Amino acid sequence: MVAGPEGPANRARIHNSPGPRWFGEERPIRRVHGDASMFVGGLRALLLQSMHPLAMAGVAEHSDYRGDPWGRLARTSTFLAETTFGTASDAQRAVDRVRGIHTRVRGTAPDGRPYRATDPHLLEWVHIAEVDSFLHAHQLYGAAPLDAQGQDEYVADTARVAMALGVPDPPRSQRELTERIEAYRPELKSTAAAREAARFLLLTPPLPLIARGPYAVLAASSVAMLPSWARAPLWLPYLPPVETTVVRATGRILVGGIRWALAANA
Q: Residue ranges of region Disordered (predicted)?
């Protein structure tokens, strides 16, 4: 469901095509983006990104996330795979494709402010919320968490993709990433669209009955990773004792199971 019907073919093309890559096999971005912890980090990223009213307005008005959530997820996962593991030419084509889509995403938010997806300021928010989420998930649920240097190098790796997408000066260290997120906090707030997206993502995704239990663990794990200041605006619970014990333990079991399944089908 995450990779989409073209997943096996895309995987073979991305990983087996000869040619230079943006990132060598030893780079931290490959370790992070290739780990099962991305399932938790991706959901956390969507929740955090929704807190910027202009970014959320663009998603609500131009994205079919409710009608075709798995298609949107497949496209996002393919983009991450192409830019992380694919050849340099495939990575650049993926970036060009996204930039082309962004030129058509513009409008007026419910509060009357205009927005456009090519705005470097909005692009940076989407980028840093994503990178912070992927890194945080990897440190909690990854098979091999990064040391301090590795975390800085991961942030620096992701800056390569962000600049290609139109972010002029993305953060290049963990400290800069944290400082940049703090700088955006005055712009973040609760909106009806953000709360609706959170409800859809956490409570009513289109899943078969058998998948709802594991997905609930993923959802709880992603919410538990959000900073406390992000909970109330999205009407999400904040239960530190439970989150650091029960939720984290069950999250690690589930992510470990996903990792095992991915390895068995590799």
A: 1-21
